[in-house]
Each structure stands twice: as C-alpha cells, then as structure tokens.
Design brief:
By secondary structure, this protein is an alpha/beta fold. It has a single domain, classed as Phosphoenolpyruvate-binding domains (TIM Barrel), CATH 3.20.20. It has helices spanning about 5-15, 30-35, 55-60, 80-85, 100-110, 130-140, 150-155, 155-160, 175-180, 190-205, 215-225, 235-254; strands at about 20-25, 40-45, 70, 90-95, 145-150, 170, 210, 230-235. An eight-stranded parallel beta barrel has the order 1-2-3-4-5-6-7-8, surrounded by eight helices. Helix 11 (about 215-225) links the parallel strand 7 and strand 8 (about 230-235). Helix 3 (about 55-60) runs parallel beside helix 4 (about 80-85). The chain is globular and about 60 Å long.
Length: about 250
C-alpha cells in the first residue's frame, strides 16, 4: 500500500510557501474539516491545548492527504515524540529549543537507529503493518521542526540550525516577545530584529523557517523575510472571529 507524501517537506524543498493552521480543538471533525479546506499542513497542538494521545491519534486519522499532519509536543521528551510518530504524524515540532544540545536530543528521538533512538513500532504510521516495509524506507522523511522562541535561542541560532536532523525551524512570536521583555509581537521592532536575525541564519545554512502569522501584516513580513512554513492562525481563532463577525453583521441589520 502507498503511503501519503510529505507535502510540507516537498514545498519547503521547492522554496514554495506552505500554509497551515494550528489545531487546538480536540475533535477529529475539526481536523477533517480543515484538511478538506485545503491547508498544506495542520499542526495538532499538545503544548497549549488539552489534547491527549488518544485524541491525537483520532485527529491524525481525520486529516486527509495531501494535507501533512504535524504535532507540537508539550516538551522535548521521547515518550511524546515516539507515540505521535507511531500515530502517523509526518512532522514533530519541539517547543523551546534554546541550545544545540537540546536540538540534538530532539533529532535523536525522531530518527531510528543508528541515527537516533526512536523505538521501532510504527503501528498506524505503517498502516497497521500493511505498509511496514515502505514506512521503514521513508521514515527519514519525518520532519523535525525546532521552535526558536527565546533570546537564548536567537543568540544560539547558528548552533541550533547546524544540528544534523533539524529539518526546519519555527519562530514563536509571543514567547519570543515575552523573552525579550517587550510586548506587541511582530509589531515591536525588537522582535522583528530578532526574527530577521534568525531568518538570515536559516537562509545562510539552508534551513527553511516558519512563523505564526496573526495578521496580514505578519504574513507580509514573513514572506518578505523568506519564511515559508506559515501558520495562518488557529481553529479557535477562526471560529471566534467568524462567529463574532456574523453576529455583528446581523445586529447591524436589525
């Protein structure tokens, strides 16, 4: 049986933008709806949302190809990373990677021996054994995305992005802003300078980058800097904003 291709990784290799969304509502129908809309990738957020491993598995199943299913694990821990990969995610985002040694640990958790320490038991990732041989050949296509979201990480960007096995980086503007002791996210010049520095390092080292874009101006900045893994928001924000806009429209007509 044929396994789905990693659309996100292919787009990044081609230098094309890949548009995605963060999923925080722990329900398979939400994941399915957003994949049917046509996002290039969807990230199931286990760091900031109350999503457990069982729910993660159901959401991954609901994400239809060619959309690439990703997960953001709560912490840089092999227990979370292993079970998420075995459930079939095609990329793991690890939050708060501040130093090269943390990136090396994450890379080892994502790869099978001899490159890493991931245990062999892919289960759904290998279509319950129906595509085990094929999966073992393509397991290297699984992506490791490290999050750069602190002053320390920005300072260590060269070392972090030079780690073998790091496929991409993703900047968290909110945490980065907090770490820098400022407010405003990408509206703050100090945050923008930090993002520009990381983007420059990524370009020099050939590592594609991404960022969370809360607004049109955020997206324009990201595209100008050459960032290509672009989060256009989250499910709950789209739901709240759409519901609020619809209600305001109705009340304006009444």
């Amino acid at each position: 049986m044929k396994l789905p291709a990693n659309r996100l990784k292919a787009l990044l290799r081609e230098g094309k933008p890949a548009f995605g969304l963060f999923l925080t509502i722990g329900h398979a129908e939400v994941a399915e709806m957003m994949s049917l809309v046509g996002y290039d990738w969807l990230l199931i957020d286990m760091e900031h949302a109350p999503i457990d491993v069982a729910t993660l598995g159901n959401m991954v199943i609901a994400i239809k190809p060619p959309t690439t299913p990703l997960v953001r694990v709560p912490v840089n821990d092999p227990a979370y990373i292993k079970v998420a990969l075995d459930a079939g995610v095609m990329g793991v985002m690890v939050p708060h990677v501040d130093r090269a040694d943390e990136a090396k640990l994450a890379a080892s958790y994502v790869r099978y021996p001899p490159r890493g320490v991931r245990g062999v038991g892919p289960r759904r990732a290998a279509l319950y054994g129906l595509a085990r041989e094929e999966y073992m050949k393509v397991a290297e296509d699984v992506m490791l995305i490290v999050q750069i979201e602190s002053r320390e990480a920005v300072d260590n960007a060269e070392d972090i992005l030079s780690v073998e096995g790091v496929d991409a980086y993703f900047i968290g503007p909110a945490d980065l802003s907090a770490s820098l002791g400022v407010t405003g996210g990408l509206r703050n010049p100090e945050v923008v300078r930090a993002v520009e520095r990381v983007a420059s390092v990524g370009e020099a080292q050939g590592v594609p980058g991404g960022i969370y874009c809360a607004s049109r101006s955020d997206l324009e900045l990201a595209l100008r800097l050459g960032l290509r893994m672009l989060a256009l928001g989250s499910d709950y924000r789209l739901l709240v904003e759409g519901a609020k806009r619809r209600l305001e429209e109705a009340r304006s007509l009444a």
